[in-house]
Amino acid sequence: MAGKQSSVAAAICLLVNLGGALAADSAIVPAYTPVLGQKLNWRIEIEGWRKSLGNLDIKLGEEKSTLTQQQSILSRTLEGFTALWEFQPPGPEAHASFDEIYRGTLDVYGVTQLAIAVDAGGAPQRAYGEGIRARLEEMTRQLDENAVREAQMLQFALDSARVNPIFEVQSLAPVAILVGRPQRASAWEARRGAVTFQQQTEVVFGVQVSASIPVTVEEIDEAGRSVLVSWVWNPPLEAAPEAIRNQIDAMLKEARQSEGALPGPLRSYAVTASQHYEGRARISLDDGSTLFAEEIRTTRVGLESSVLAVRAIRQ
């Protein structure tokens, strides 16, 4: 009798363990439900590589940088939420190109924070950048007539902001886009290995396009109350603006002048452009928010390519 009871207990224990294992293969990820007013600190790690192909020679340049930004949700709106991102300029000891560019951008824009309209899943839809644009317009008017390069840069920023509603987000808080991408407006069932398609708007070469991004569930961590997802996406480039095509033509002309006729293997690269996104994120099973996200984005225009890796860690 004791042996029979022992067998029953063992069977029950086995069923409980199996049940836990089966439960770990799926989970319900809640809709994005941020706490209003709560400030989240993000550590942002950036790495970049540049590659130039010429006569099959490969030249590499590498940059690394670390930034700190704060995110908070100010209020609910009919479309979603109003988010606020606050910035800290890199310290004087930071001398990477990213640091210099970001420090200069903050100085030109004259801001230390940016309010952003996000949808119900937390993805940026537009920046409240009227003050920034007014400042750039005033700076343009005050420029000396000999400051041609500065005028061109300011005009580019103004033109971009007019056609791209999240241009200021890309310039000041691009991590807001990365963090918002994995979050969803409604609850969904995550199954290990399953692929779902997330519909959203992305900016490709400065142009907004409708994207259907395949998202794969890699891991379900019930103990840690999170789900790990990944995505790979090659944006359609039919919408690439004329400026990109002009850039390709100019680079091709320069390559021909400096190196003569291009080798066959390089010809197809020289007259095309491409982008490739590959990333992953860990999402909370408690409120549907992003806990960690990283993405590697490879952009090639003609013979010049760059790889930008961004990692956002919530602290």
- The radius of gyration computed from the alpha-carbon positions, rounded to a whole number of angstroms, is 24 Å
Structural class: alpha+beta
Gap from first CA to last CA = 55 Å
Helix tally equals 8
* Major sheet: arrangement of strands: 6-5-4-3-2-13-12-11-10-9-8
Q: Count structural domains.
A: 1
CATH fold assignment: Lipovitellin-phosvitin complex, beta-sheet shell regions
- Per DSSP, what share of the residues sits in E-state strands of 2 or more residues? 35-45%
Count of β-strands: 13
| Proportion of helical residues | 25-40%
- CATH class assignment: Mainly Beta
Please tell me the CATH architecture by its name: Roll
Give the low-confidence spans: 14-23, 55-59
Tell me, what's the shape?
globular
Report on the biggest sheet.
11 strands, antiparallel
Q: What number is the mean pLDDT?
A: 83
**Pattern of helices and strands:** HEEEEHEEHHHHEEEEHHEEE
Oligomer: single chain
Plain-language structure description:
This protein has one domain: Lipovitellin-phosvitin complex, beta-sheet shell regions. The chain has 315 residues and is of the alpha+beta class. The protein is globular. The protein has 8 helices and 13 strands. The protein has an 11-stranded antiparallel β-sheet with strand order 6-5-4-3-2-13-12-11-10-9-8. Strands 1-7 form a two-stranded antiparallel sheet. Strand 5 (113-119) and strand 6 form a beta hairpin. It has helices at 2-23, 97-109, 130-142, 148-163, 167-172, 175-180, 242-259, 264-270, and strands at 26-29, 39-54, 57-76, 80-87, 113-119, 124-127, 188-191, 195-204, 207-221, 226-233, 273-284, 290-301, 304-314. Mean pLDDT is 83; it is low at 14-23 and 55-59. Helix 3 (130-142) runs antiparallel to helix 4 (148-163).
